Amino acid sequence: MTSKTDEALGYEQARDELIEVVRRLEAGGTTLEESLALWERGEELAKVCRRWLEGARARLDAALAEEEGPAGSE
Questions:
Q1: Region for 49 from its dihedrals, namely left if φ exceeds 0, alpha if ψ lies in -120 to 50, beta otherwise
Q2: Which residue in 35, 43, 44, 70 is a FRET match for 10, CA 20 to 30 A apart?
Q3: How many whole angstroms separate alpha carbon 41 and alpha carbon 2?
């Protein structure tokens, strides 16, 4: 479940934190419990990024549809 704090994260913030999580996981040296916590955090951050990207795609699609206007209006 995504927390209220995650919902307030901007795309760049979530992406940057996700990059750091991945770096820490790739570096190793963490306990199993720490690794699992990092993995879970990474999954939540990925969801935040995905929602931002889906929202951006919807806005672009809407803007393009508006620009094209109704079919056959030319």
A1: alpha
A2: 35
A3: 10
Residue type at position 43: E
Burial of residue 38 (CB within 10 Å: 0-12, 13-18, 19+) is middle
How many residues are there in the chain? 74
Q: Which of 12, 14, 5, 22 is nearest to 45 (CA)?
A: 14
DSSP 8-state assignment for residue 70: S
| 14-71 tens-digit pLDDT | 999 999 999 999 999 999 999 999 999 999 999 999 999 999 999 999 999 988 877 6
pTM recorded for the entire structure: 0.78
φ, ψ of residue 70 to 5 degrees: the values are -65, 145
